[in-house]
Amino acid sequence: MLHAIRIGMLIGLLGCLPSPHQRIDVASQPSLEQIQRLEPAAHAIADTPDESGRWAISDADRIPLGSVARTLPEANAFVGYRGPTEALLLFDQQNVVRSVSVLQSHDTDEHIDAVKNSPEFFQQFSGLTWGGTLKDGSVPKIDGVSGATLTSLAMAGGILKRLGTAPGSLIFPEPLTLAEAQSFFPAASQIQGGRMAVVQDENGTTLGYLIRTGALVDDEIGYQGPTSVLIGLDLEHRLLRPKIRHSFDNEPYVDYVRQERSFWKRFEGLTLEELAAFDPPAEEVEGVSGATMTSMAIAYTLPRFAAELLADEEWKTLGQTPFQKRLHAFQESIQTTRLSDADIATLVALVLLPLLIRFGVMRKTWLRRFWLFAVWLVIGLYAGNLLSLALLAGWATSGVTWQLALGLVALAIVSVVIPPTRRGNPYCNHLCPHGAAQQLIRPSRDSRLKWNLPSWLSLPLGFLPAVTLLLVYLALLIRPATDVSFVEPFHGYLWHLASWSAIAWTISTLAIACFVPMAYCRLGCPTGRLLDWLRFKGTSHQISRMDLAIAGLLLFACGYRSLMH
Question: Are the C-beta atoms of residues 161 and 78 closer than 8 Å to each other?
Answer without folding.
Answer: yes
